Amino acid sequence: MSFGVETYTVEFSTSGKDEVKDLTKKVEEKIDESEVDDGICLIFAPHATGVLVLNENEKGIREDYLNGLYDIVPEDSEWKHDRIDNNAHSHLKSAIVGTDRAIPVTNGSLDLGTWQNIFFIETDGPRTRRKLILKLIGEVSS
Ligand code: ZN
To answer: Closest Cα partner for 117 from 58, 50, 54?
Structure first.
């Protein structure tokens, strides 16, 4: 066994103003390409108005993610940043929930729970150039 660091990018677009996008399969394709067998997969979305979550992919809860975020950060408040580009609520959702997750990798697969999927939540779409950066760090199969 030896130690390795690999970097992958998952590119995607979003079609709605708000959208819950399941990127689990696209991330797992990169994990399959990777030679890291045992380690950590850091997933990072380099976007100030995106949200990254690990959770269930069910129609109702997907709408609840958007509605719950709206309840926490209403769009019609007197946000100061809205004077610039009218998307303060998007920045606040991103700042509160975050844009990174670390997932253990064992035997070349993500250790996701049965009901965990990898979602990018768009809060300021539609956007054509969104991406996730993956850093895989760990023992590489020989
Ligand atoms: Zn802004």
So the answer is: 54
